[in-house]
Amino acid sequence: MGGLLAPGGAAAKPPKGFLGMNVNGPLDDPAFDLAGEAKQMRSIGVRSWRVEFSWDLIEPKPGEFAWAATDRKVLAAAQAGIDVLGLAVRAPFWANGSFFDPFVPPKDPEAYGRFTAALVRRYGPDGTLWKENSGVRKRPVRDWEIWNEPNLAVYFRDQPFEKPYAKLLRAAYKSIKTVDRRSTVVLAGMANFSWRDLNKLLKKERGLRFDAAAVHPFTGKPSGMIEITRRNRQVLDRRGRRSKPLWLTEMTWSSAKGKKTPLTKGWETTESGQARRLTQAYQQLARYRKRLKVSNVFWYTWASRDDGSPNSFEYSGLRTTRGEGSGELRNKPALSAFRRIAK
Predict the structure, then answer these.
(1) Is there a contact between 23 and 302 (Cβ–Cβ < 8 Å)?
(2) What is residue 11's predicted lDDT score, i.e. its pLDDT?
(3) Bridge partners, 51 (sequence order)
(4) Is 51 in contact with 95 (CB distance < 8 Å)?
């Protein structure tokens, strides 16, 4: 990649919520003590969660909502004093033309807009969740990320993605702001050649409205992570979005190396290597954060199964399961590294 930035000087105190965590995988299973994990996260410096709100699971039939799984996470975060970034993603078959693949986007973007409005009415400042749980101190969801990696066909089947994704973003932005005008709407995080695809989107779809842009800077070395972030920053600046902050809504290294699984990404490492790269990555982010206008970083992920899956991301947790069905997690070296860097 191209040359890195010049040193950014001493690291300033990061903004509120800077240290975030993706919360999925084993923690989707009610067998795991989510409240206990939330307390542990809070104790070591995690201040925000990225939580997936899957439309196909929440609204399997038009107007019929199943809130239990996402209620569990939002309430656990609130009780631990942790903010939530809601990821509004996937589409039910009734909205995407009867495809049972949830990554086929909806035929009518306004239907997605109505779903995002329903999320805010449930979890926002005047959300029904808080009325139903008056014993929990209200901590409304104010941040919403619109889809996940739409530049990749595996997560957004309608390619080229620029026009159909822009329609979703426009519908969601209007709907979310109508219910909560002070919310933050985040442009979806993109992976791979993210800066090229971000440039295509902003060039073709001028006038798109969003409050922050996200990126998933997956790469072999922490210096490459900074370079990918820099390239996305350059695109935003060049396209008239200089004031928009960047959120790293997924950053990780897989510890799949040495496990019984094929290495499919080319940047897998060992558990000790994962800890080293995590440390280096956060040190570099502290150094360049202000120049790159990075305001939030979410490690992917808190817990993974590390159980022979061919998916390298299934080895990216700071904690991992002790065994199938045990409901228990063990720490990996990366957890201690995260704790040290958070201080």
Answers:
(1) yes
(2) 54
(3) 86
(4) no
Domain ranges of the chain: 19-342
305: exposed, middle or buried (C-beta count within 10 Å: 0-12, 13-18, 19+)? middle
Question: Which two structure tokens, joined as six digits, stand for 310?
Answer: 């061919």
Query: What DSSP character marks residue 126?
Result: T
Which CATH code fits 19-342? 3.20.20.80
Helix axes of 34-43 and 68-80: crossing angle, nearest 10 degrees: 30
With CA atoms as reference, report the closest residue to 316 among 307, 324, 328, 325: 307
- Collapse the DSSP code of 183 into the 3-class scheme (helix H, G, I; strand E, B; otherwise coil) and give the result: coil
Residue pointed to by tokens 């120049």: 291
Do residues 185 and 120 make contact, with C-beta atoms less than 8 angstroms apart?
no
How far apart (Å, rounded) are the C-alpha atoms in residues 321 and 158?
Answer: 36
Q: How far is CA 53 from CA 23, 115, 145, 247, 270, in A?
A: 12, 10, 10, 18, 31
* Residue 268 to residue 220: CA distance in whole angstroms: 8
Residue 58 is encoded by which pair of tokens? 């929440």
Q: Give the angle subtended at the CA of 306 by the CAs of 302 and 312, to the nearest 5°.
A: 85
Find out whether 63 and 94 touch, Cβ atoms under 8 Å.
Answer: no
Regions in the chain scoring below 70 on pLDDT = 1-13, 323-326
Q: Is the pTM of the predicted complex or chain greater than 0.90?
A: yes
Cβ neighbours around 65 below 10 Å, total: 14
The residue type found at 262 is P
Token digits for 287? 């150094």
Looking at residue 312, its amino acid is S
CA R_g for the chain: 19
